[in-house]
Fold each of these.
Amino acid sequence: MRSVIAASLRKERIVIVGGGMAGSKLAYELCQQQNKSTQITLIGEEKQLGYNRIMLSSLLANDITQADMALVDTQKMILSGAEIVSGDPVQGISAEDKSLSLHSGRTLYYDKLILATGSRASILPIQGASAENVIGFRNWQDVQTMSAMAGSQPVSVIGGGLLGLEAAVGLAKRGHQVTVFHRSKYLLNRQLDRESARLLQNKLETMGITFLLGESPQALLHNDQGVVSHIERADGSIMATNLVVMAAGITPEVKVAKQAGLQINRAILVDAQMRTSCPDVFALGECCEFDGQTFGLVAPIWSQINVLLAVLAGKHADFSVAPVPTKLKVSGVNLFSVGRIQPTADDNCIVFQDEGSNHYRKLIVNDGYLVGAILYGNVADGSWYFQLIQNKTNVSDMLDLLVFGEAYCQSKVA
Amino acid sequence: MTTTVSTTCPYCGVGCGVNVTLPAQPNGVVPPVSGDSAHPANFGRLCVKGSSLAQTLNSDDRLLVPHVAGHATTWDNAIDTVANKISQVVKEHGADAFAFYLSGQILTEDYYVANKLAKGFIGTANVDTNSRLCMASAVVGYKRAFGSDTVPCNYNDLEQCDLLIMVGSNAAWTHPILFQRIVAAKKQRPEMKVVVIDPRATATCDIADLHLAIRPGSDAAIFSFLLQESARLGLVDRDFIAQHTSHFQATLQQAIESTPDLSTTAEFCGLEEAQLATLCEWWASQDKTVTFYSQGVNQSSSGVDKCNAIINCHLATARLGKEGAGPFSITGQPNAMGGREVGGLANQLAAHMDFATPGALDLVQRFWQAPNMATQNGLKAVDLFQAVEEGKVKVLWIMSTNPMVSLPDTAQVKRALEKCELVIVSDCKAHTDTTVMADVLLPATGWSEKNGTVTNSERRISRQRGLLPPPGEAKHDWWAICEVAKALGFEAAFDYQGVHEIFAEHAALSAFENEGKRDFDIGHYRHISQREYDAFTPTQWPVPEGRPEGTERMFSDGHFFTGDGRAQFIPIKPSLPVQQTTEKWPFVLNTGRVRDQWHTMTRTGDAASLAKHTGQPYVALHPTDAQRLGINEGTLTRISSAYGEVRVKATLSNASPPGQVFVPIHWTQQFANAAVVSNLIPQTVDHLSGQPESKHAVVQLEAIQDLRYGLVVSRRPQCFPEALYWCAIPSDNGFRYEVIWPKGVAIESLKATFTLLETGQIQWLEYNNEATGQRRLACVCDEKLDTVMYFSNRPEAVSADWLLSNLVASEPLSEPDRVALLVGSPANVEDKGNIVCSCYQIGSKQIEKAIASGAESVEALGARLKCGTNCGSCIPELKHFIPKEMELSA
């Protein structure tokens, strides 16, 4: 009985593991609520915490300065009573006594635990990939490593997905000679079709990037200092490189969750209220898996935060998966992709192509509904197409003008 | 200093006065023309065709030099070629181996010298004209009744009558100014009744108190019944009939036999009895009645009988020769009347005298001092072209008309012209369906250059004045005829010093030994000087010596120009068109005009604005028939008859009942590949007038399947050899085509063909829509529009105006405009500027606008536009938009 009384008198302890975008943003929003009966603790393994990870590309490309990187105002959080622990990764969790231990040896107790451990760059099982100049493109440290290199060195990026291309552009802007290896026949093959990828490639090539499509490195060859100095290509030829950026996908970070006995598939399994298999333990962001899906883009994660804020406040909310548009954060490149990319047998494609002005649009419609859109060059209608998909708007009456965008279709309705 | 000159419109038979302001500089642009407020035909009004005349002055298809056998040559050489060939065939085969085929669009003076040369000097009466196609039946009708080709009425009668019966006329479109005068009169006196008798509900029905949608061709029965109703109701003027007419009883008897009662007549005409009864009631109660009739009556195998059925009713009730009453034939062409006056038809001699007129041959021979008088009627138009095909006529001089389009059975006309040894075509256009058949091409002056007189539908003679210098080597038709006459050795008779001398001679002939015997007498002008001719004011004939004011109305005295001075009643047996529908040819085809085109578009086709109303040929059919045949709006439809085939788009209309279709007459092969409606028309003629039954054919219809419908807009003229249908739609800039291909047309090869000539930097824009079957391509050359092609599996209505305007754009295409090239029009797109927030697609211009209206921070922008509220990566950029002083004060 005493313990119950004690528990009701003290503040509710909410501990958030992970100082990335999901964790920081959640912590910030909880602080904003100024609930005097909760104690918020945010734990991050990186030294920097609460920054906008999406802007690492811009930082690498020198489009912005470090001062522009903040996602949340950590000073404000501290003033409101939150505790922020950075550079001190969690070592283990005990669900039984609701505690966790940090690398520093410290132990914390929680009433509610939120795991926002994010993900890490997948390191491909290529011979020689364990060298220190083989890095991901995930955190501030990675950017600092790249930024520290003097200009005009040969560098390689493995993976022509969003992250790989952003890294490649950033490195190219810093004056390096960048080569991108991409396993598929065209870039961004999960977001684009062949035509739009070709336009993108043309554009990136004008920025000085070389592409090796349909190709993965055979081996990363080390010099006598144990760092990668050359890449052996599939045809056996050798090319020099001073840095390898692995951008061939991400792996959810589930180590402590697994160790704590949470149910895990590809990532930590959660329900529509972001609850894990363990009472009072929640997960969100790139480390969670809902309805068979994991999340790498910011929009669904923001919805997860809203759901979780409601759930923690004792209200009901459901998370659901919605299609999320893709954009490439490269200045001078406008690209938008949402929904289905490759038409199925009963889909119809609507294509607009103006190669002279690098403008391309492909819509996929099925039985009167828009199910996918790829825009390159002029992406102004992207959010409208996104809405049409999300709201399941019947577009049968505007099929003839749909690809030309919202203004045309609305003037037709008007 | 500009000067303003009065002349006469070259289009319909209303003959409106037109004021043209001439630019101060010789090559200056002529501003839009205006109506001549002093002209009694129109009092300053002009229809849309007349108003657009200035747009037609700079044709890029003028015939500028003579051609012989396809090669440009001199006038001397061309005239020698013509004269030598005429001499040769006349010598070897007789004078009837030569023929003129003239036009209601040439001037009276042109007509006069052609008629004189053929009938008095070469010695053939083979002088016919396209007037044969428009009012030959009206002429014979008048002549049978009055003994002369005399239109009794004037335009004021249309305004003063209490009952106006419009038969076979869509005056709203074909004679717009007269229609407007009628509309105005009816507005002033709403009690004035207007009846329209027409199988089709036309625009003219808008003012009709009663529309009788009769069975095609049954018009005569209505007037036959009206005649006997007039007798039954005691409406006939016994005194007038007794004193001034013959054959009333026999005619009445025939009417009673043909149309014994209301129900029989109504059934024959396909009308409700009540409708016909209403007409009879109004006819009985309104003494001041004008019957206004046009091609719907005339273009018929029984056209003359229809005219006389009408005239019979007016004679029986003495409703003519007085204000607001009369049988009023309205002509279609600006100078069909002038041609009739000089005798420019194969069954006339000269000056309202026929070969059969006692003493006429001798009179005319003496007046002309003619060496080789023709002595009997020549060949009427259809007979003439048949004689050409048979090889009897070997030299044919076609002047200012387009028989390859206007004569029935185009295939026959083509065979005839191919067979003919020498086809001479005088025209102001280089490319018409007829000029391509010519061996000798003579460049003629056109309206605004030609100088002479025309006569309108109310007998009013007006001047057409030469305002602009003829381009190139173009010459007046009268000059070309006189030069050939001189080359044939008739120098003295054709040595005119000016066109006024021809008019004076024409006037002198009309008065020569006339003494009141002939209606046509303009003796007042027989000594007209150049100055008087130039100052000529519009006057209604007769203008005999001593009556310079002319004659407002004819037959007021009850005197007619028959042998005994009495008008003749003509017994009429109403008959239906020769061709009746069969299982194989189940539809009745009607033909006519559209509002903004005239004849074969050789002039109206130059005014882009006139193509706005109806840009393409069409077949109008009833929705019930369309549904049965699987035809939708815009479906390419094959119309075939025993004579040929036409392919045009369908339009669904309730204007005609099921079973009847309508196709306009205007589109030639210069404008469309398969739209010449004469291909379908049989060479059935009225046996009295020789006028073809051009408003009636029996046909079948079929929707053409598996097509690619297309629009092509280009800087260059294009041709479409693989197309089933194409139509060039006149435009101010560039070239616009509606095209229909078979489904399998190779679009990639068209791309190459259409841009073959370009040497600049070419970019292709493409739109391909599997959901709608649309495919669109735009070729941009050096950042400006070159060619656009739209393809679709079904008819699409796309406005090409914006695309056409882009062909002359001076600026490189903007990005929104490039998109618009494949839509056909610019959207009302908000120009967002460069996208700053890519999550919500918010652009720089939107941000600037929001800041200007008070959003002073990134947060405020986010609240208003949502920018920066998703991923936040645009916030640094957003900050740059906030003016520094705002940021500090915030």
Amino acid sequence: MFKDYNLENVKAKVSEALVKAKKSNELYNDVVTFVDPSEQLATMPKSGKMLGIPIALKDNVCTKGIKTTACSNILNDYVPIYDATIVKKLKDAGAITICKTNMDELAMGGTNLTSNIGACLNPWDTSRMSGGSSGGSAAIVASGAVDFAIGSDTGDSVRKPASYCGVVGVKPTYGRISRYGIIPYSSSLDHVGYFTRSIYDASVALEVLAGRDDLDMTSSNREVEAYSDNLNSDIRGKKIAIFKNVYDGLTNEQTKEIFGKLLANLKAKGAIVEEVSFDEQLLKAILPTYYLIANCEATANHSNLDGIRFGVRKDGKDVEEIMINSRTAGFGSLIRKRFVIGSYGLFVENQEKLFRQAQRVRRLIVEEVKRCLDNYDCLIAPASNDIAPKLDDHGRDELSNEYLIVENHMIIGNFTGYPSMTLPMGLIDGCPIGVNITCRAFDEQTMFNIGASIEEITGLKDLKKEVA
Amino acid sequence: MKDIAYFKKLAHQLMFDLSDDEAKDIALEFETLQKQLSILEAIDTTNVEEMIYPFEMPTTFLREDVVENVCSQEDALKNAKAQKEGHFVVPKVVK
Amino acid sequence: MEYDVVIGIEIHCELKTATKMFSSAPCIFGAKANTCVNEVDLGHPGTMPCVNKEAVKKAIQICTALHLEIDSLVKFDRKNYYYSDLPKGFQITQQFHPIGKNGYIKINVDKEEKKIRINRIHMEEDTAKQFHLNDITLIDYNRAGTPLVEIVSEPDMQNGKEAAAYVEALRQTLYYLGVSDVKMEEGSMRCDVNVSLKPKGSNVFGTKNEIKNLNSIANVQKAIDYEVARQKALLDAGKNVEQATRRYDEALKETVLMRKKEGTVDYKFFPEPNIFPILLDDAWIKAIQADLPELPDVRKARYAKDYGLNDYDISVLIANKELADTYEKVMKTANNAKMACNWMLGEVSAWLNKNGGNLANINCEYLGQLINMVDAKELSNSQAKDVVLPEVMKNNDPKVVVEAKGLKQVSDTSAILSIVLEVLNEQAQSVEDYKNGKDRALKFMVGQVMKKSKGQANPQIVNKLLLEELAKIINN
């Protein structure tokens, strides 16, 4: 954890981290590119909140001079000419980037199976998936190689893999962290998020990452709070809403039991814990709503990947042919299918009943959640019905309640932009499963405080499957 | 039902191709999607405004007109696959 | 058959800002290729737009000058299409909420004033510039992201002359606002014209053709005149006009087909998610509007009132803002407004055309003094033009020049009279010739007087005195 690092042990700790990361990569395929830390070590500031801490960045974070592929063939040789704003902030805080991590291609997936370098495996059970899209970052933090990794979360892409890998996965409020320099998926849903193994570290990290960035017009002017100084696990009188629809959809008895025990303990600590139900019809619409908004925005966001100025260029007799050949070879099947759907939803004749309808339903869902959080400090639910699925698990019924609601409820955090976080709540068959909490906009402090309390209850602080 | 040719044409407008299998897959998945979309369509959104941004308080910031970030020609062309005299090169574009 | 001609014009105008519409890279015309760009202009992954305040200010100025209602909630949208000059694969524009709606501009054609309505003005970004060589195309992204406004007229024009007057009126207005270079030949102002014909009095619009990228106002008129005739011939022959995009070929003096329009392109417009709506401060808008630079119409009225110039002189002066600005500075010294105007439009313009040079470098006080000397008949027109003006243009004081070259015109009647009498005395034969009706003799004697005065005698006075003295001789 962050407290283990200081100016004296930087070099040793960074080398140690690199050794572990290489080992982790051999075992789990969680790294795309290793970064030589020598220049960063040489130019490291004298002080900072993350001084000398080795970290990992998801491979959709633009790093000047360091290959950034977003695990898509079309960006296989792309070397950014600029640093993402968070890269600058992390450098200023003294953090040392040692690698870029595996992810679903262009962050469009929840399994990390769609990466162009292959699946990222779950450190707890390599026959299982890490989850995605930020699978590599979740796995490398779980492996203990680094204590912090950047991810991005468009529809639970930090919080789901955090659950599967047993680490803390934070998605702060939309606009809290600048998105400038993060290869996008869907601009109105994308959030920068990150992984740690403790709530305290998570609270420090947000102090480093958060803040207004004029390069991202959607970033917030709100002052960054002293989250770590104000961290307080006393939750007496805090009102916690149990997401009843999710609870009712759970089919895994062990998950129910672990979650139930956690709720009882929260009550015992003085929290007011009550069930809250949402309109079931709206909840079932989360996935199609998400699917449309995300893919409609994504198809436009990735129109710049055309082989003309950067990225892979395939030959062609004219510009159109170059674009077509480059994009056909450059994008995986799934990506191209999603672009087709997205484009379909944007057509003039479809936009009203698809894209715009999705945007209207998004509002209805957000209003429903807002009403709940007007009365409660936090909404709580298991992050998933079960531990990480097997790599070859294709057996889910995509129209079932279990799937539509239980496996997709965390997308609410992206619709609302509210802060949302997953942390481990227990282990089933030796594999972790997480609990998700969502709070009011910009109330990360309450989220961390409740998280700290959960961490005390579960005793799963610094949970890891350490690589030898 | 939308056929393979339809999706191939659509893909072409997006500047990529779909193989027969991929187009077939989409056509199949489209069925599931249509069912999911019917859930969406069934929701009454009369008088509901589209939610385009997570937060809807208008902002006021505008950037001052001052040059702050310009990259070198070398950097601009760094990722280019073909260049000539400081330009990006493509096969002749016929207007 | 008789037809009504319906013409609408879309004008793209580059705004004169230091930086791009959505990035802080510089806007410099003619810079080395790909040196005025950053990652945003190149459409690199992860980049985001950031709206330029000055561009918004200039758009507000334009909307105000053209009487549009301003939407103080600024929103942007994406227009999606793939093209080699479009780095992001979409252009950020204002499809759904243009910054300005419903305005107009007045034009004058054949002494008739007409209002041309403007439907909308929106802000957007320019594309990259392409250079087509034999087998390759070179792309320079310096222009990519340059702020543009698009000004869309209502179809209120009926012939090429009106269209040209509209474009010229807009060009002048934008130029006087200082918001753009409005150089059609350099592409900082680009003009697309829609032309259609319908049977006279009909309510149903005909099929329109769009003529793209007209590069001069003269060509706007020529292209429209040609296109109207072409469509009329088709319709008269019972044929259909096909909807198409055309361009004007200067060599052929014809509009030629670029591409037929088969249905409309679906640009899949949707709101730009990376730019939250921006609420403009009302006080800021009001301050911009209160501080608007003087517009051509206002200046015209002022010239009529302050200088008493006629409409023609005013319109010629106004058409060249730098010339008009210089004229105003000259008028701080010059006494005769009409004479000063003639000098600006005549001698000064001619000198600059011939010798080059910049109006801004002229010492307007000296020029005013020179004009005053001519006005006071202290200097002959020809001496002023041929000898003194070139010196004034070199920033030399006209008084010193006149002194040094001994050019001061003598208007003292007694001094001239003594020379006249001297000449009459010496040139008896000429006096005799004059008596016999030979007019040439008079000219000769004038020349002799001028010669004796070393060219300094006021020729009109010489003429007058000679005639008077000759009359005396004849009457005796």
